[in-house]
């Protein structure tokens, strides 16, 4: 048996339930069912839907720049909102997909999109993203000392400062944090700085020469736009793993058990679906089980994954955004400051 945070949507829990299994379901059986869906899926299902979203987002960037050139405060405000939303979609949804190789079938082209979405547009090094996210977080999800989401914790900050104020400074600290991550890896650092300089130059060219802002105003607009969805971004990243079972490196469970107990889905959201992506928001369980699938395919396999886990007695963790927010606000010290308790996987009882 193992404890886990879970429950039906709208019924947030912060108590431990028991999972009792006579036989541990096999990942290979779930993979067969998912592969059957993949074989019947077209290129449109596999990649096309997400490509259309990406093209629309890039197009909306120019709409935003155009709106910000108006003398109307309302038009400028709307332009900033669209600009910030597009930035989030490209640098979170797009970069996340490219990092996992789910933008297209070509490994080389995924690498190109990683650099564009992350280094150039997002000002964060794709090399560091790959090391932190692909090499550590995914294979070691909720394993103490490896993928336990501790990088998201800032224990010296009080609850409300962390939850509602600190995220607004992400655009300011992105480059210093990136440099610290690449310190000593000089070639990667130089490459990152070159690409980031290109991206920021394009950004300021748009804002100063097409929207007509001064450098100071362009800097302020960049900060506001990039910070616009930073609060839900931090929330989503901590809600989906922290507070769920954590395992020691010596007693880690098999993959399907690890991911089903240590990952949580949030409900679909019209705004966040296309700025963060299904694989980060509402299909995070599916994403951790099948990380190379696109957002659209994670959504398509969701009923199969949910049915399989529930049928075999494993948790399928879901909760509302509001439910997690209440838990983290109430239990901030326990979840974000104190060391997490270790859940022992001792095999099937």
TrEMBL record:
Keywords (alphabetical) are:
Membrane, Transmembrane, Transmembrane helix
Gene Ontology biological-process annotations: lipid metabolic process
Instruction: Indicate yes or no for the key word Repeat.
Output: no
Spell out the InterPro entries in the cross-references: FA_desaturase_dom (IPR005804), Fatty_acid_desaturase (IPR012171)
Question: Per the database record, which ranges form the Fatty acid desaturase domain?
Answer: 74-318
The molecular function GO annotations come to:
oxidoreductase activity, acting on paired donors, with oxidation of a pair of donors resulting in the reduction of molecular oxygen to two molecules of water
Q: Which residues cross the membrane?
A: 46-67, 74-92, 161-183, 190-208, 214-236
Q: Which domain of life is it from?
A: Eukaryota
Identify the GO cellular component terms for this protein: membrane
- Matches recorded under Pfam families: FA_desaturase (PF00487)
Whether Signal counts among this entry's keywords is: no
Report what the protein is called.
Fatty acid desaturase 6
Q: What's the source species for this entry? A: Mizuhopecten yessoensis (Japanese scallop)
